[in-house]
Amino acid sequence: MKLPIQDINDFLLVSDSNFNYKFNESLIHQITTSYLLVNRQGTSAQKNRSEVKGTSKKPWKQKGSGRARAGSFQSPIWRSGGVTFAGKTQDYTQKINKKMYRGAIKSIFSELIRKDRLIIFEKFFIEQPKSKLLIKKLSKIQLKEAFIITHQTEKNLLLAARNLYKIKICHIKNVDPVSLITFKKTIITSMAMKKLEEMLNVV
């Protein structure tokens, strides 16, 4: 499979098994959901009646006071008492194995190629860490927002894009499925594509 390289008159050869992969919507949904759940803290919690501090003494005698019988100051019906169905800390993470993750990445990249949402550059960099230079570079290919994937750490790109919320810079090892789906266009260097293919071929 041949993919055109934007900044030079050449093509990048990639395997059909990795970049002409079938679209698996259910798998992509599962992977993206799992990725988003990692950031969910699940630390919200309340105390039940056994966890609330206080005396265990009976508030008043069972009979003769004229009031409703009561057995504990920690009762949920009392002010400062425990919560009836107290929420507890939870772990929302979902286990995703490597084979599933690789399959989802193959499916996403293949769909980006089919829909002409993937742009390959031999090199993508700017001379100085200035936002206006990055915006100008993207405007040459008629883009205002993009997900840029590089094969090495480009400090100038990182500094230039940190205040631009419609532009995200990412190393190939840290590619996430949510960003790939969210951004309308993805820019990737040819070397990053080769490294991605090596990662996808690992058994």
Question: Features of this protein?
Answer:
203 residues, alpha/beta, four-stranded parallel β-sheet
Overview of the structural elements:
By secondary structure, this protein is of the alpha/beta class. The chain is 33% helix and 13% strand. It has helices at 16-19, 25-37, 98-114, 131-139, 155-161, 177-182, 190-201; strands spanning 2-5, 10-13, 118-121, 146-150, 167-171, 186-189. The longest helix is centred in the middle third of the chain and has 17 residues, at 98-114.
Question: Helices, strands, pairings?
Answer:
Layout: E1 2-5, E2 10-13, H1 16-19, H2 25-37, H3 98-114, E3 118-121, H4 131-139, E4 146-150, H5 155-161, E5 167-171, H6 177-182, E6 186-189, H7 190-201
Parallel strand pairs: 3-6, 4-5, 4-6
Antiparallel strand pairs: 1-2
